[in-house]
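User: Before I run my own analysis I want an independent prediction to cross-check against. Here's the chain; please return only the structure tokens and, at the end, one sentence I can use as a sanity check.
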Amino acid sequence: MSELTLTVIRLGLLALLWIFVFSIVGVLRGDLYGTRVLTRSRPKPQPRPAREPVAKPPKATGPITPRPSRASGRRIPTMLTVTAGSLTGTTVSLIETGVLLGRNPECTLVLNDDFASGRHARVFHRDTGWFVEDLGSTNGTFLGNNKLTQPTQVEVGSTLRIGKTTFELRK
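Assistant: Structure tokens:
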């Protein structure tokens, strides 16, 4: 082989080595600093021309007030409160579109729990009341001491556990 060929091979291997080193540094950086959490901000409304009629914004709706169901003896939850874990004391209102729990920034309640999946579980509303469903998580979602395998109806006082984080449904 000529001197030029050996030099090109050496420089190619050196370039591959540096690419490998930078990829390792990137992975380590991701592990040390974790997932980047994005803040949710609403876009600022654009000013409208004076000639167009300005429509009134729709009324904001707070947490839904569930209607009494056929099972009138049941108490219906309106809030999800973290009772144990890194977010202890955090309260989320149950909204009709549902509450998504997990580690992804897109979730309603972002969990800082190593045992939670990206999209771990959801609490949602049906005609008969509120239900909780595991979304195929690795470590499972527990209602009381029972592991969820299908959507299960919940009431006030029910405890929900995802990893080291425990939730309670409250009125």
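Sanity check: The radius of gyration is 25 Å.
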